[in-house]
Amino acid sequence: MDDVAGAIADPVRREILVMLRAGRLSAGQIADRFEISRPAVSRHLRVLREAGLVRDDLVGRQRFYLLVPDRLGELERWLAQFSRASGWEHRLDALETEVYRTRREHRVRHEETQAAQRKDETA
């Protein structure tokens, strides 16, 4: 997990990962999108590759990079413990559901009571 966290700590590497979400790109295509040198982009790609976040395939003389999102899973699970969805937000959603259910039941009972009263008045 530490190598993955270290790899995504850099904003250039995070941007490369975002770019690769859409599909594979050549090293040249990636480098063209940055205002840093090609060797610098190459070093960023090496860090991502060593962390297991990208895979490279050599096709002729071009090297293509693909995202390997599975490596983010361990970090994602660790970060989930700090997410609101795993705590109060989930409980508040459940409470909201219960409030709506209770209000609906109360409204139905009230309508049934009023219908019964009208029936008694007409009888």
Order of helices and strands: HHEHHEEHH
β-strand amount: 5-15%
In total, the number of strands is 3
Question: What is the name of the CATH architecture of the largest domain?
Answer: Orthogonal Bundle
Find the CATH topology of the largest domain.
Answer: Arc Repressor Mutant, subunit A
CATH superfamily of the largest domain: Winged helix-like DNA-binding domain superfamily/Winged helix DNA-binding domain
Mean pLDDT: 86
Q: What would the principal axes of the Cα set say about the shape?
A: rod-shaped
Radius of gyration: 28 Å
Helix count equals: 6
Question: Structural class of the helices, strands and pairings?
Answer: mainly alpha
Which residue ranges are poorly predicted, with pLDDT under 50 across at least 5 consecutive positions?
none
Under CATH at level 1, the class of the largest domain stands as: Mainly Alpha
As a percent range, the share of helical residues equals 55-70%
